[in-house]
Specification:
Distance between the termini: 47 Å
Radius of gyration: 15 Å
Oligomer: single chain
Number of domains: 1
Shape: globular
Number of strands: 7
Largest sheet: 7 strands, antiparallel
Order of helices and strands: HEEEHEEEE
Low-confidence stretches: 24-43
Strand order of the largest sheet: 1-2-3-7-6-5-4
Structural class: alpha+beta
Helix content: 25-40%
Length: 156
């Protein structure tokens, strides 16, 4: 059982590492990637929807009171990636369950997800030309979480 937990933790860290590496490589490979015009520090509630790229499905904003800590988009030749880093008052477990429920309900195929025993929870899902990567980590206070939400959409 302990070996399985360690393997799941390694898998979770590997998934998050791949996401971070892909964003970094994309940024280096495509220097026209830029911070978006959206406001960092805004909340994700209805009053501040103007601060979130309209391309990101609103259902992916699980915590309406989350604070945007980073916000950028990257233009690739065939896709555009929108990424939000959020600080949420919801727990890591609650966010993981809510994201899985939303993605399943909305017909996304869960390609990979980490066990809730991993230090970083990760979900990779697809639907048609949409790709969703979600990483959820627990903050040191044990009550709040950081979320890295990446949504990619093929260009038409």
């Amino acid at each position: 059982m302990k070996t399985r937990t360690i393997l799941l933790e390694i898998l979770g860290l590997a998934v998050v590492g791949v996401i971070v590496a892909a964003v970094w490589v994309g940024y280096k490979k495509y220097p026209h990637a830029k911070n978006s015009q959206y406001i960092v520090g805004a909340r994700t509630d209805a009053q501040n929807k103007k601060d979130i790229p309209s391309e990101i499905p609103s259902g992916l904003l699980i915590d309406s009171q989350a604070i945007i800590t980073e916000n950028y988009n990257i233009d690739y030749p065939e896709t555009k990636q929108y990424t939000l880093s959020l600080n949420s008052k919801l727990s890591q477990n609650d966010l993981y369950a809510e994201y899985l429920a939303y993605l399943t309900k909305n017909d996304y195929k869960i390609v990979n997800s980490t066990s809730q025993n991993a230090p970083v929870f990760a979900i990779y899902a697809t639907k048609g030309s949409e790709i969703v990567n979600i990483g959820i980590s627990k903050n040191p206070d044990g009550k709040t979480s950081d979320v890295l939400l990446s949504y990619s959409l093929a260009k038409k």
